[in-house]
Amino acid sequence: MTTDQILVEAKAISLSLSGRKILDAVDLSVHAGEILAMIGPNGAGKTTLVRVVLGLLKADEGELFSAPDLRIGYMPQRIVVDSILPLTVQRFLTLSHRATEQQLRQVLGEVGVERLLKSPVQHISGGEMQRVMLARALLRAPDLLVLDEPVQGVDVTGQAELFDLIANIRDRHGCGILMVSHDLHLVMAKADHILCLNHHVCCSGHPEVVSSDPSYLELFGSHPSMALYTHKHDHRHDLHGGVEKGCKGDAGHG
Prior knowledge:
Blueprint: E1 6-17, E2 20-31, E3 35-39, H1 46-53, E4 61-66, E5 72-75, H2 89-93, H3 101-110, H4 126-138, E6 144-148, H5 156-173, E7 176-180, H6 184-190, E8 193-198, E9 200-205, H7 207-210, H8 214-220, E10 231-232, E11 252-253
Parallel strand pairs: 3-7, 3-8, 5-6, 6-7
Antiparallel strand pairs: 1-2, 1-4, 8-9, 10-11
Helix pairs in contact: 3-4
């Protein structure tokens, strides 16, 4: 995939469910090597649009185009695993995709949790589970990663680490990333392109452009926590938010 190639493109997508219009003439495109973040209030249709892109829902109107032989890795909002089900991380990863133990260790290592391979999924933390879910999506060697609320249930420190990891994955693999998130301050720092959705496209473009758009300000206001965010420090955190041994420094937010 070349960096300017369009991986997926939706044109004038409209969809109604139970008589209620969820999506109204929505346009979206994701290029290889690009992080497109979709933001919007609860109930705005973000997850519905993701399902249309994945082919899980058929739009009432509009067109959807995909690059030939496009491989998609999908990370849903959540997966609930029964507490009494004896399921290790290794088994969980191979439920929907065949892989050798070496491949599993490689992909878990890429997201920083290789040590969890033999662990029961019920015994790992929220931040660890999100990384396991990301590893599961990467097993497909995707051209396009679709991430629906990838930092859900993770504390603020863990969120920053996961967003850094997602950006690094894009840099290493050159894949396109379509990401749904409510974490505006982090999204604005890491995404290349923002699409602000509230059943229709309110605004879209570079984060700095969107953050000053009247439609964005009307939806989210100008509260300081919504400002552009940078995360600069000279230490690393573990998955639980602690400073890793041997790393010192202060976190800075600007």
